[in-house]
Specification:
The chain is α/β, with parallel strands linked by helices and 172 residues long. The chain contains five helices and seven strands. The protein has one domain: P-loop containing nucleotide triphosphate hydrolases (Rossmann fold). It has a seven-stranded mixed sheet.
Length: 172
């Protein structure tokens, strides 16, 4: 059963990083389900909302020690951690959604993969549906985050996150 959205007030960059680290910490809890079906995470928000910051913190939490680059120009940065294959996409530069299909990205979505997708709306119609959606909204000096889980694997990850993450809730 899907959970209601989780909402957090992210006062600063450190809070955005804490959310990313929290997500990184729960991914191993979902590893068996990820191995079977994969996990697709949409990261949505305006430029500067903190999408890449969140992904960097998630990857650091999972043990990625090297450079964590934004895939704005390369479109994809792959990482392998333990038995998880993580793919960080940024489709901001897409002119048409068809570029997703032309790029051969569809084969990376599925069993064993965690696909972290910035600007998913730019690949609409080609991109698989989200298991987890993270909506980041700029609020003064901070951010608000809403996390939605339309699938069972997404709900499982959010349940784990809800029990471990200690961030202030955002107003409903």
């Amino acid at each position: 059963m899907p959970l209601p959205p989780l909402k957090y007030a992210l006062a600063d960059t450190a809070a955005t990083e804490a959310l990313g680290a929290g997500l990184g910490a729960v991914l191993p809890e979902c590893a068996d389900a990820i191995a079977q079906q994969g996990l697709t995470v949409y990261l949505q928000g305006d430029l500067g909302a903190g999408k890449t910051t969140l992904v960097r913190a998630l990857l650091r939490e999972l043990g990625v020690a090297g450079a964590v680059k934004s895939p704005t120009y390369t479109l994809l940065e792959p990482y392998e951690v333990s038995r998880l294959h993580l793919y960080h996409f940024d489709f901001y530069r897409f002119k048409t959604a068809r570029e997703f299909a032309d790029g051969g990205f569809a084969e990376l979505f599925g069993p064993g993969g965690v696909c972290l997708v910035e600007w998913p709306e730019r690949a609409s119609g080609y991109l698989p549906p989200a298991d987890l959606q993270i909506l980041l909204t700029v609020q003064d000096a901070g951010r608000d985050a809403a996390l939605l889980a339309p699938t069972e694997i997404g709900s499982t990850c959010l349940r784990h996150l809800q029990t471990t993450l200690r961030l202030p809730s955002a107003g409903a």
